[in-house]
Write a structure and sequence with these properties.
single chain; 146 residues; alpha+beta; five-stranded antiparallel beta sheet; three-stranded antiparallel beta sheet; 1 helix; 16% helix; flat
Length: 146
Protein backbone atom coordinates (compact mmCIF):
# COMPACT_ATOMS: atom_id res chain seq x y z
CA UNK A 1 0.00 0.00 0.00
CA UNK A 2 2.84 2.40 0.86
CA UNK A 3 4.48 1.72 -2.52
CA UNK A 4 1.24 2.60 -4.31
CA UNK A 5 0.81 5.87 -2.39
CA UNK A 6 4.44 6.79 -3.01
CA UNK A 7 4.00 6.02 -6.74
CA UNK A 8 0.89 8.23 -6.94
CA UNK A 9 2.64 11.08 -5.12
CA UNK A 10 5.72 10.74 -7.34
CA UNK A 11 3.55 10.81 -10.49
CA UNK A 12 1.69 13.86 -9.20
CA UNK A 13 4.97 15.70 -8.53
CA UNK A 14 6.30 14.84 -12.00
CA UNK A 15 3.13 16.17 -13.62
CA UNK A 16 3.33 19.39 -11.61
CA UNK A 17 7.03 19.83 -12.41
CA UNK A 18 6.36 19.23 -16.12
CA UNK A 19 3.67 21.90 -16.29
CA UNK A 20 5.90 24.45 -14.53
CA UNK A 21 8.69 23.68 -16.96
CA UNK A 22 6.33 24.20 -19.89
CA UNK A 23 5.42 27.69 -18.69
CA UNK A 24 9.05 28.57 -18.00
CA UNK A 25 10.01 27.57 -21.53
CA UNK A 26 7.67 30.00 -23.32
CA UNK A 27 9.71 32.18 -25.68
CA UNK A 28 10.15 35.90 -25.17
CA UNK A 29 8.43 37.71 -28.07
CA UNK A 30 10.75 40.70 -28.00
CA UNK A 31 14.40 40.10 -28.76
CA UNK A 32 16.85 42.91 -28.20
CA UNK A 33 20.54 43.19 -27.54
CA UNK A 34 24.00 43.66 -28.95
CA UNK A 35 23.01 46.79 -30.85
CA UNK A 36 20.02 45.51 -32.80
CA UNK A 37 16.31 45.45 -32.24
CA UNK A 38 13.34 43.49 -33.50
CA UNK A 39 9.73 44.52 -33.80
CA UNK A 40 7.34 42.42 -31.72
CA UNK A 41 5.71 40.01 -34.22
CA UNK A 42 2.11 41.05 -33.51
CA UNK A 43 1.84 43.70 -36.18
CA UNK A 44 -0.33 43.59 -39.31
CA UNK A 45 2.03 45.22 -41.82
CA UNK A 46 5.50 45.05 -40.18
CA UNK A 47 7.03 41.59 -40.04
CA UNK A 48 10.48 42.68 -38.86
CA UNK A 49 12.49 45.84 -38.28
CA UNK A 50 16.16 45.84 -37.37
CA UNK A 51 18.81 48.41 -36.69
CA UNK A 52 22.46 48.46 -35.78
CA UNK A 53 24.91 51.12 -34.78
CA UNK A 54 28.62 50.52 -35.28
CA UNK A 55 31.34 53.02 -34.38
CA UNK A 56 34.86 52.33 -35.63
CA UNK A 57 38.15 53.41 -34.05
CA UNK A 58 38.26 56.64 -36.10
CA UNK A 59 34.82 57.78 -34.92
CA UNK A 60 32.75 56.89 -37.97
CA UNK A 61 29.31 55.76 -36.90
CA UNK A 62 27.51 53.44 -39.30
CA UNK A 63 23.73 53.27 -39.02
CA UNK A 64 22.13 50.17 -40.54
CA UNK A 65 18.34 49.80 -40.49
CA UNK A 66 15.90 47.58 -42.35
CA UNK A 67 12.19 46.88 -42.38
CA UNK A 68 10.36 43.92 -43.84
CA UNK A 69 6.61 43.93 -44.32
CA UNK A 70 4.37 41.13 -45.50
CA UNK A 71 4.55 40.48 -49.23
CA UNK A 72 1.08 40.87 -50.73
CA UNK A 73 -0.17 42.92 -47.75
CA UNK A 74 2.37 45.70 -47.14
CA UNK A 75 2.43 48.16 -50.05
CA UNK A 76 4.88 50.83 -48.81
CA UNK A 77 7.50 51.12 -46.05
CA UNK A 78 9.41 54.07 -44.57
CA UNK A 79 12.31 54.41 -42.13
CA UNK A 80 13.29 57.59 -40.30
CA UNK A 81 16.42 56.81 -38.28
CA UNK A 82 17.79 59.35 -35.80
CA UNK A 83 21.40 59.09 -34.67
CA UNK A 84 21.36 60.40 -31.10
CA UNK A 85 24.09 61.53 -28.69
CA UNK A 86 23.82 61.36 -24.90
CA UNK A 87 25.03 64.70 -23.58
CA UNK A 88 24.22 66.68 -20.41
CA UNK A 89 21.84 63.98 -19.19
CA UNK A 90 19.66 63.77 -22.30
CA UNK A 91 19.53 62.19 -25.75
CA UNK A 92 19.63 64.68 -28.63
CA UNK A 93 19.40 63.98 -32.36
CA UNK A 94 22.56 64.85 -34.29
CA UNK A 95 21.61 63.39 -37.69
CA UNK A 96 18.50 61.94 -39.33
CA UNK A 97 18.52 59.41 -42.17
CA UNK A 98 15.50 58.28 -44.19
CA UNK A 99 14.61 55.51 -46.62
CA UNK A 100 11.34 54.58 -48.28
CA UNK A 101 10.04 52.15 -50.84
CA UNK A 102 6.80 51.38 -52.66
CA UNK A 103 7.41 47.76 -51.76
CA UNK A 104 7.19 45.56 -48.68
CA UNK A 105 10.82 46.16 -47.64
CA UNK A 106 13.61 48.70 -47.55
CA UNK A 107 16.89 49.37 -45.79
CA UNK A 108 19.40 52.12 -45.17
CA UNK A 109 23.12 52.26 -44.52
CA UNK A 110 24.55 55.67 -43.63
CA UNK A 111 27.63 57.03 -41.89
CA UNK A 112 28.30 60.06 -39.72
CA UNK A 113 31.39 61.22 -37.79
CA UNK A 114 30.92 61.32 -34.02
CA UNK A 115 32.79 62.99 -31.16
CA UNK A 116 34.84 60.97 -28.71
CA UNK A 117 33.67 60.69 -25.09
CA UNK A 118 29.93 60.26 -25.62
CA UNK A 119 27.35 57.49 -25.96
CA UNK A 120 25.28 57.12 -29.12
CA UNK A 121 22.18 55.22 -30.17
CA UNK A 122 19.74 54.96 -33.07
CA UNK A 123 16.04 55.59 -32.66
CA UNK A 124 14.05 54.59 -35.74
CA UNK A 125 10.44 55.30 -36.58
CA UNK A 126 9.12 52.61 -38.90
CA UNK A 127 5.95 53.05 -40.96
CA UNK A 128 4.31 50.38 -43.08
CA UNK A 129 1.28 50.90 -45.28
CA UNK A 130 -1.35 48.65 -46.75
CA UNK A 131 -3.19 50.89 -49.17
CA UNK A 132 -4.23 53.92 -47.10
CA UNK A 133 -3.92 52.15 -43.73
CA UNK A 134 -0.70 52.76 -41.82
CA UNK A 135 1.06 51.06 -38.95
CA UNK A 136 3.88 52.75 -37.02
CA UNK A 137 6.48 51.52 -34.57
CA UNK A 138 9.40 53.29 -32.89
CA UNK A 139 12.36 51.14 -31.91
CA UNK A 140 15.63 52.06 -30.19
CA UNK A 141 19.00 50.32 -30.44
CA UNK A 142 21.30 49.76 -27.52
CA UNK A 143 23.87 52.49 -26.97
CA UNK A 144 27.49 52.49 -28.12
CA UNK A 145 30.22 54.57 -26.52
CA UNK A 146 33.08 56.13 -28.48
Amino acid sequence: MKKRIMSVILCFLMICAGSVQTFAAEPNTQVAGAGYFDVIPLMDYIAQAKGNLYIDASGTATVLCSVYGYQGTTTRVEISAKLQQYKNGAWSTIQTFTAESDSHRTSLSETHSVTKGYSYRVQATIKAYSGSSVESRTVTSSSATY
